[in-house]
Amino acid sequence: MPQPYASAVLNASADDVWAYLRDFGNLAEWMPGVQTGMIEDGGPADRIGCVRRLIGPGDSVFRERLSTLDDAGRGYAYEILECPLPVRDARGRIRVAPVTETGQAFVEWSGEFTADAADREAMEKTFAKGIYATGLGALRKRFG
């Protein structure tokens, strides 16, 4: 099972970065390519089980369900319920940790999925570089 991964160091405290990222509904604010995002039932974006609906390039629809939210560990996990990519059983995780020497934030975005053999390598690159690394780069700029 492919396990795409990306990480970055941001020039902000782990607490500040986590305070922003823990909002499962705000992905459209910071993720390049996401045009709109909302929590489907209008409920709170930190409720386990809430589903965010994202509209991406070419009006593509992504639906993701929050499966865990860990404030003490500064992280959350989600399941991808619907997406236009040729993957199945896809899950992702975001975690924020302090860089104790500098006071910066270390952010990891990782996932796993199942795909047909012909799609596996391309999808691993798409997630690791096209989604995770791109998103972390946008966060780096946001927290300048």
TrEMBL record:
Domain of life of the native organism: Bacteria
InterPro entries: Polyketide_cyclase/dehydratase (IPR019587), START-like_dom_sf (IPR023393)
TM region(s), chain numbering: none
Protein name per the record: SRPBCC family protein
Species of origin: Actinomadura vinacea
Species classification: Bacteria, Bacillati, Actinomycetota, Actinomycetes, Streptosporangiales
